[in-house]
Amino acid sequence: TNLLEGKNIVIMGVASERSIAWGITSSLHKAGANLIFTYRQDRSYKKLTKLLDKHDITAKLIVSCDVANDESITEAFSTIKEKIGTIHGIVHSVAFANREELQGEYADTSRDGFLLAQEISAYSLVAVTKAAKDLMTEGGSIVTQTYLGAERVIPNYNVMGVAKASLEASVRYLAEDMGKYGVRVNAVSAGPIRTLSAKGVSGFNEKLGMIEEKAPLRKNVDQDQVGDATLFFMSELSRGITGEVLHVDSGYHIIG
Ligand code: 0WD
After folding, report:
1. Residue 157 bears catalytic tag
2. What is the gyration radius of the CA atoms in the chain, in angstroms?
């Protein structure tokens, strides 16, 4: 099916083949979308171009964008505006916290570490929405990636859990702002998936084991499942939905 034929969609956060954003790339590509990518590190740029080559996907545009920097965001989106024009969607799949704060007690979080996690993992969605607003002239969809640690205490997730809570609240406030322009804003809350970022969270293997044992579907989710849920949010199939957090976690979040 060509659910996204003719749609220009910006994907932020492909760092490797394991990235959730790469699973999303596959799903959106199969649906016929025109894809624009942003990357932060040169290493990620190299990985991305190799991956696109290998999978025979042609990017419409690849631009650098460090979400920690307002100028970088402004520059990225003005380049997109100039070279592409109207966009119909944004996939926000970036987050960051200091590794040493993804273990031990949340009470030990430093001021800088707290602010950094909030800046990269939550405020970045606000900044990107602000920059993309005047490119989304035909309405569209913004989708971010969150995790259960926003709602519940998950061991070691700590400062990132609080950043994800802020991200989810931002999804609701942004949904209200953007609704009048025909833009929907939603989040996918994925179960644990082994990626570069996941390596930074201690006790990650235990989390995977817990899903296999306790989740209704008794197996872990993968990047493709998150990709297809994101495709749903990107497409007209979800046209009545905004401000929502959709769990793609084998049902784990309903179990007490
Ligand atoms: O279990 C998991 N892996 C889950 C991840 C479960 C549920 C949610 N998530 C979320 C993450 O919190 C994140 O929001 O999904 C999103 C993507 O995570 P991922 O796929 O696990 O992460 P990874 O493949 O490591 O990519 C993270 C990327 C970075 O790559 P770089 O180029 O920095 O190596 O996050 C991005 C970046 O693309 N990133 C930034 N991008 C722009 N500016 C920045 C920044 N300052 N910092 C990190």
Report:
1. yes
2. 17
- CA–CA–CA angle 108, 158, 45 (5° rounding): 115
Instruction: Determine the 3-state secondary structure of 172 from DSSP.
Output: helix
> Would strands 140-146 and 183-190 be described as parallel, antiparallel, or unpaired?
parallel
β-sheet bridge partners, residue 11: 37, 91
- Taking only the tens place, the pLDDT of each residue in 56-92 is 999 999 999 999 999 999 999 999 999 999 999 999 9
Domain boundaries of the chain, sorted by first residue: 8-248
- The residues lining ligand 1, judged by C-beta closer than 6 Å to any ligand atom, are 13, 15-16, 18-21, 39-41, 44, 65-68, 93-96, 120, 145-147, 190, 192-193, 195-198
CATH topology of domain 8-248: Rossmann fold (3.40.50)
> Which of the 8 DSSP states describes residue 5?
T
Q: Record the tokens describing residue 42, joined without a space.
A: 């040169």
Measured from the Cβ of residue 111, the count of other Cβ atoms closer than 10 Å reads: 7
Q: Residue type for 176, please? A: E
CA nearest 93: which of 177, 9, 2, 7?
9
Site to probe by mutation for ligand 1, drawn from 93, 193, 196, 230 as the one with most ligand atoms within 8 Å of Cβ, is 93
The answer to whether the CB of 186 falls within 8 A of the CB of 245 is yes
How far is it, in rounded angstroms, from Cα 149 to Cα 172? Answer: 17
pTM: 0.98
ipTM exceeds 0.85 = yes
- Has 39 been annotated as catalytic? no
Closest CA to 183 of 226, 224, 128, 229: 128
